Amino acid sequence: MEITIRQAQERVDAWIREYGVRYFSELTNMAILTEETGEVARIIARRYGDQSFRGGEETGSSLAGEMADVLWVLICLANQTGVDLTEALEESFRKKTERDRDRHRNNPKLL
After folding, report:
1. pLDDT for 59
2. Cα distance from N-terminal residue to C-terminal residue, the chain
3. What is the pLDDT of residues 50-66, one digit of tens each?
4. Most distant pair of Cα atoms in the chain: their distance
5. Which residue among 3, 15, 47, 79 has its CA within the 20 to 30 Å range from the CA of 22?
6. In a domain, 77, yes or no
């Protein structure tokens, strides 16, 4: 089943209202977002970077699951602060296209 960003925002909000009682505060959710982002970074550093997994550390941690956790908390913050992520992403595409239309094509580091 495919889901739009707007539908994801609606579903997270419905889940919070049914099972979560209420949203955590914005500050708490920002801390959780930082924590979840760190978990993504840890997996990538060990799986694709130069670090190895430590003894007893899970080598099978789910990168997809951790990324989904980041998305979940980001959606919570968007809902709490009145951000329509669909509109925000469209604006980001417009801004990046206008600003970076030729920038990356002309970057010798990327060729």
Report:
1. 66
2. 37
3. 998 888 777 667 999 99
4. 52
5. 3
6. yes
